[in-house]
Amino acid sequence: MKHLSKLLSAGLLAATAAGSAMAQQYPTKTITFASAMAAGSSTDILARETAKFLTDRMSQSVIVEVVAGAGGNIAAQKVVNATPDGYTLLFVTNGVISNQAMRSKPPFDVTKDLVIISPLFEGIFGLFINPNVPAKTVNELIAYARANPGKLNYGTSGIGGIVHLVNADFAERAKISLVHVPYKGGAEYMPATIANQVQMNFADVSFAKPQVDAGKVRALAVSSKQRLASMPDVPTFEESGPAFAGYTPTFWMGLYAPKGTPQAAIDRLNAEVRAFVTPPDAKARYAARGYQTVWLPPAEAQKRVSDELAQFNKTIDTVKIERH
Fold first, then answer.
1. Selection from 73, 111, 93 nearest residue 305 by Cα
2. Are 147 and 296 in the same domain?
3. Count of domains in the chain?
4. End-to-end distance of the chain based on CA atoms, in angstroms?
5. Are residues 257 and 110 in the same domain?
6. How confident is the model at residue 284 (pLDDT cuts 50, 70, 90)?
7. Which among 36, 84, 77, 33 has a CA at the least distance from the CA of 259?
8. Which of 44, 176, 185, 309 is most buried, by CB atoms within 10 Å?
């Protein structure tokens, strides 16, 4: 028995040493982020800032490859199919979770085929309209939509994405009819709103604020619980009445790896993400841009994904959106 115990102890020590060595050695070559939203979008910008930090910290190049479309599913599928060695990662919004909820036969399971390293950034939605729409408040927009059913188009980053579900939930609460026009990302549907090709959209407040300041779009409401310091004159949705009680949808961006990626690589990446987003100066810097920085240990991050998938399924059933 003593001999067996020594063998087991030796094996455990060897495995621990191997894992530690892998963590110290990783990475030994270029890491690629599949950025799931269009070039120039807020998600893509944050992906590049994360890649720059990791490049400096890990002494290996981290590059960003834009793989836009289908609300993040194309990029996610690329990573699901990649070799699980820690060198092909996914940078995506929680739209990849809502996409799964929207599909009757999902092409992959975000809770099983991907491993989340950590969330990084959480943002606030704003409701923005073309200035030609005769509405200065959410309730005026609702009144206009009811008087002109089906004449208001809204742009999103794709069918079944988080932006689509937020819009659909808004329309259901407001009891209005809106026409959905899917694009590849905010970098496309915001210009479409400015050009009046669509009349409204829900978008990242920090991404849309320059267009508001320039008078190219009008901000009607934000999804935070309190008014934002960056847009103090814009009310929250909850200020618009009982129909919007508890209506505080947010979006967040996270970093994922394929299932089967060595735990040592996951742990190293998680530690570097923590070093990136948790220092007070980083929190303050991103707060000024409208983001809350987020870090979770891998197990807690995985639970967040599972819990959010369950919530999206509940929302889709409540709003009665047809899965495809």
1. 111
2. no
3. 2
4. 59
5. yes
6. very high
7. 84
8. 185
Domain that holds residue 136: 124-244
Going by C-alpha positions, the residue among 54, 68, 5 that lies closest to residue 26 is 54
Position 16 pLDDT exceeds 60: no
For residue 324, being part of any structural domain is answered with no
Domain with residue 233: its CATH number is 3.40.190.10
Q: DSSP letter for 293, please.
A: E
User: By the 8 A CB rule, do 257 and 115 touch?
Assistant: yes
Alpha-carbon gap, residue 186 to 202, rounded angstroms:
9
Residue 71 — left, alpha, or beta (φ > 0 → left; ψ -120 to 50 → alpha)? left
Residues 225 and 274 in one domain: no
Check whether residue 266 and residue 235 sit in a common domain: no
DSSP code string of 80-136 = HTS-SSSSEEEEEETHHHHHHHH-SS-SS-TTTTEEEEEEEEEEEEEEEE-TTSS-S
In residues, how long is the chain?
Answer: 324
| Same-domain pairing of 117 and 265 | yes
Instruction: Compute the distance between CA of residue 93 and CA of residue 33 in angstroms, rounded to an integer.
Output: 13
Dist CA 178 CA 239 (whole Å): 22
Distance CA(7)–CA(3), nearest Å, equals: 6
Q: Is 225 helix (H, G, I), strand (E, B) or coil?
A: coil
User: 51 and 94: one domain?
Assistant: yes
